[in-house]
Specification:
By secondary structure, this protein is an alpha/beta fold. The protein folds into two domains: 90 residues, Rossmann fold (3-Layer(aba) Sandwich); 135 residues, NAD(P)-binding Rossmann-like Domain (Rossmann fold). Helix content is 39%, strand content 17%.
Length: 302
């Protein structure tokens, strides 16, 4: 039986964060006579991307944030996408710009990310925002690591001196996560596909954060007893009924939840862990961008 007290409820944390953001977006609307505004660009028809964009837009609408969705066909040229971004960069009624990744292969993600005005880069992927985060003075932190950080701060009173192991070194999760925790006085080890003795590293972690994309790869043999586990991975498993040929899909993380919950102190589930926090942090970053772009003071919530 699952021990509910061991579950880090990302859905609840996301609701709590949104409750803190709502009065800020309301205050902004009253003062500037328009809502904070997020523009989302989606190129192509990738089903997962469409769901992510839909959820972002629905959450924005519920939280007094105007959203502008720009849907472009899969054969959109790089030049056309750049022009759309330049228009949004100039538009004083747009506070945040998000380009849903991945992009089709003929478009350079690097070029597109660099074309977004850093003060509207609510995903925090622009090199200027990345550099500021690395220097310990961030404006916009990528939403997934920011969400993980928020939950860790709420779960643990003290992060100082904690041994953290991060599995995965992507620009979206692993690297910014490491920067955030290093700035919070953790001792951080970043591991990846070429790391030797991964298990040995992981079994030393007070906090283990997994962002690999390999279904249920991490079981209890990787875990230090009483560790806090953050599972960023989202993997779609196909389940096929041999008798009826009926196909179903199940979302799982990188962590083998049933095996790890017994040894860990606390763990985020998939779904209902990091995912909802990522969207809540996007709302946070959009409202923050709206305030900063009007030279209004924004007191950091996270
Ligand atoms: P990525 O493919 O860019 O990076 C994966 C990382 O895992 C790489 O650094 C690679 O070195 C490492 N890796 C791969 N195999 C490994 C192994 N056997 N041992 C150790 N390390 C290994 O992926 P990403 O964009 O960082 O995403 C990672 C996962 O997190 C995916 O499942 C993705 O869907 C999920 N994700 C979830 C959210 C969310 O909101 N919950 C947001 C972003 C990403």
């Amino acid at each position: 039986m699952q021990n509910i007290s061991k579950i880090i409820n990302g859905k609840q944390y996301a609701e709590n964060l949104l409750k803190e953001i709502f009065p800020l977006s309301n205050h902004y609307s009253k003062k500037f006579l328009r809502n904070p505004c997020l523009a989302v660009l989606l190129v192509g028809e990738d089903p997962a991307s469409k769901i992510y964009v839909k959820n972002k837009i629905l959450t924005a609408e519920k939280n007094n944030i105007t959203s502008v969705e720009i849907k472009l066909p899969i054969d959109t040229s790089e030049e056309h996408l750049l022009n759309e971004i330049y228009k949004l960069n100039k538009d004083t009624n747009v506070d945040g710009i998000l380009v849903q990744l991945p992009l089709p292969l003929h478009i350079s993600e690097k070029l597109i990310i660099q074309s977004i005005n850093p003060s509207k880069d609510v995903d925090g992927f622009h090199p200027i925002n990345f550099g500021k985060l690395l220097m310990g003075d961030p404006d916009f932190v990528p939403c997934t690591p920011l969400g993980c950080f928020y939950m860790l701060k709420k779960e643990l009173n003290e992060l100082d001196g904690k041994n953290v192991v991060i599995i995965g070194r992507s620009n979206i999760v692993g690297k910014p996560m490491a920067s955030l925790l290093l700035s919070s006085n953790c001792t951080v080890t970043v591991t990846h596909s070429k790391t030797k003795n991964l298990k040995e590293h992981c079994s030393d972690a007070d906090i283990l954060i997994s962002a690999i994309g390999k279904p249920e790869m991490i079981d209890d043999t990787y875990i230090k007893p009483n560790a806090i586990i953050i599972d960023v991975g989202i993997n779609r498993l196909k389940l096929e009924n041999a008798k009826t040929n009926e196909k179903k899909y199940k979302l799982v993380g990188d962590i083998n939840f049933e095996s790890v919950i017994n040894v860990s102190q606390k763990i985020t589930p998939v779904p209902g862990g990091v995912g909802p926090m990522t969207i809540a942090c996007l709302m946070h970053n959009t409202v923050k961008a709206a305030f900063l772009n009007k030279n209004e003071k924004f007191v950091n919530i996270i």
